[in-house]
Structures are given as C-alpha cells and as structure tokens.
Amino acid sequence: MILKKVAGVEEALQGVESGMTFMLGGFGLCGIPENAIAQLVELGIENITCISNNAGVDDFGLGLLLQKHQIKKMISSYVGENDEFERQMLSGELEVELTPQGTLAEKCRAAQAGFPAFYTPAGYGTEVSMGKETREFNGKMYVLEEAFKADFSFVKAWKGDEAGNLIFKGTARNFNPCMCGAAKITVAEVEELVPAGELDPNQIHVPGIFVQRIFQGKDYEKRIEQKTVRKRS
C-alpha cells in the first residue's frame, strides 16, 4: 500500500509555481481547501488560473488570492458574492471564463476519467458556444467541451486515511470528488486523518488512487456565506 501522508501544507504544496492552473473544490464557502488557499497566499505566486465553482467572498476563500492580485484568470460558474471579483472583472484586470455549472463539473470529471472532451446541450446558441464545435444528435444540437487541464487539484474532505482514501460530509461533497485525480497532482486536506485501513470501505467516496498527497488541516473557520435566521418570537 502506498502511503500519501505528508507533514503539512508546506510539504503538500511543494512544486507549486507562478503561472500554473489550479482546481479548487468547494461550493460557496462550504468544503473549500482553507489551508491550501492560505498557503498559496503565503507563497505569493502570481499569474495563476483558478478553476472553481465560485470565487469566495471579499475576505475569505479565493477572495484572499484576489485581494493580492495573484489570480490572472478565473474559470467559474457562480461569482455573485465577491465585490472585488466584480471590480477586477469589469476593469479588465481579471480574465473570466464563465461556464455552466453542470458543464464545469463534467469538465472536471472528464479530466478525472481521462476523456479529452464531451458533447453537451448546455450553452448551445449562446456566447458559451462561440468558437466551439457543435454537432447534432437525434435532432438536438450539442456543444463540444474539452476536459480541463490543471497542474494541481486542491480538495477538502471531512476524513481521510494515510493511503489517500477520502470521505466527504454534507454539501462539501460537491466539486471536491470530481476534482480528485483531475489534475497532475491532487492534494487533499482533511479534518481527521487516520491510519491506512481504518476507514470502512463502504463509506469511502474517493479512493486513494486519485490522491497524491494528503495532510491533516487545522484552524478551519468554516465561514457561512450568507447567514439567514428567523426573528425570535
């Protein structure tokens, strides 16, 4: 059995350089790789491309990288919670590629499975399909979408073992699983790391074959994107 455990986030991110393309799991602020993002900020790398469903908020998540102008391009689906993102996009400082949410997930999964491309009806006849090959199947038009190509995937799981097997919890089981194995190197940070063989095989969501490095994260803030509560009676 190959053990994937590394000492911490510093070792996990060895080889990260400016100009690279990164996948980052999470949905809103749920299930984001907080430790990896903080380390990317600390490293000060620049001109990076980030593939993520959203861009965090102004002072958390990918918003921390945007604050430092470390991101050159964002490939995302929903970006409506970040004022700094909006400012940089409208000013031309940030290159943005908006992608339908299902297409973004499938482009990750295709890369994970080793498929170079796939056809989807999403986006046909819109700006999304401009410059892309289209084809008719059974009387319906489809757009050819290419799988993502990334240098690192950074994902966050609830529990993992030293062999890289992962279990996700709740909504964190969103873009994280399909980003595992979808880049040259997948780095998983977990809230709880156990010895190899301790996880129930029937509960594992992603097998360790898709993970190259795993470490136990710390100081998770788990911030709520928009807290909505009812008034007390």
TrEMBL record:
Gene Ontology MF terms in the entry: transferase activity
One Pfam family from the record: CoA_trans
Entry keywords, A to Z: Transferase
Transmembrane parts of this sequence: none
Gene3D superfamilies: Glutaconate Coenzyme A-transferase (3.40.1080.10)
UniProt keyword annotation of Transferase present: yes
SMART domains: CoA_trans (SM00882)
Protein name (Swiss-Prot/TrEMBL): CoA transferase subunit A
